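Protein 1 of 2
SEQ + STRUCT:
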Amino acid sequence: MPQKVLVLNQDFSALTICSVQKAFILVYMNKAELVSRSETDFLRTVTTTYPFPSIIRLHRYVHLPYKGVVLSRHNIFRRDSHRCQYCLATEELTLDHVVPKSRGGKSSWDNLVTACKRCNSKKGDFTPQEANMHLAQQPYKPSFIMFLRDFSGFIAEDWKPYLKKAKTY
């Protein structure tokens, strides 16, 4: 039974993912409407049965001045599938600056990758080309919708039409 609910803005654009409890409260308090529900699961009280939400839509439009993915260690690891981008190891992970900070490399989506301690140490203060190490994929900044779609851990079938607008890179 999935414990996540897709929250849509008033214009049906994907806004975020929340817990079933939070979604139920928004619907119950008449701040959102139920767009899609589970056919097999229900929320039960002693006297009443409620539909189990899968997608809700807010009644009021929420204007977000910045709708992007926060640059963080955890989000870089999620983008890179918790794998070293040099050897694909999954243990002892760190962050690596593709262009080293000592050479003007910034801490940005396009310059940070997940690396194991061994590869990070081997690469040292060199670029991947100088260290003769190849990246499994070039670092990129995921869009907000792409992040929801690809990295949230769970995507229900009925969410997919609302998460199709993402760019691939």
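Protein 2 of 2
SEQ + STRUCT:
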Amino acid sequence: MTSAVPTPRTDGAAPRTDGTPQVAADPAPRGGRRSLAAALLLGAAGAALALLASRQSWAHGTAAVAGGDFPLTAKGSDVTGVPAALAIVGLAALVAVFAVRRTGRLLVSLLLALSGVGIIVAALLGANDSGALDEKAADTSGDAASRIADLSHTGWPYAAVAAGALILAAGLLALICGRGWPAMSGRYERDGAPRPRAQRRAPDPDRPEDLWKAIDRGEDPTREA
């Protein structure tokens, strides 16, 4: 009887001696790690930028008071609290992506993407808004009918729009590639099969301490392994 001669491999994998072709390693995990890192970077950067933009000045103007014109400024949080709130929601969803699987991961990824959409819409609506400054003008002048004058806007609302786009991109990556990402407990799992118990060495009859340890474990030291 002639033995099978292993066929040389051209892909760098070692041949098998039983004649069965060996499957090359799947390069998908490397791509999964790249998409995972990209989603984390995009989501964290978007949330940080949205929170920063919400604390900056979005609009300036003046209010007419008895002593003249009084300058007023409206921060992003004065105009709308949606970007900051959705940035926190997006961060929570980004973390939750790794704690859930299957349908749960799909829903959390969708929530992450919708957070980005909400930030974009809220920032665009607030880019030319004067309501916050009108309220400040009324409070400053003591006249409920008072309106802001010399209104001007900054570029920070559009920074919030960019932040929402980053979070949206992270959500889309999670929706498209998240199925192959590891879960939070994945590092402790392999193929689902129980691990074999370590083979315990039989006690040495010439060592009394081994015999006592075996008795403490409920084992029969006289039984052969």
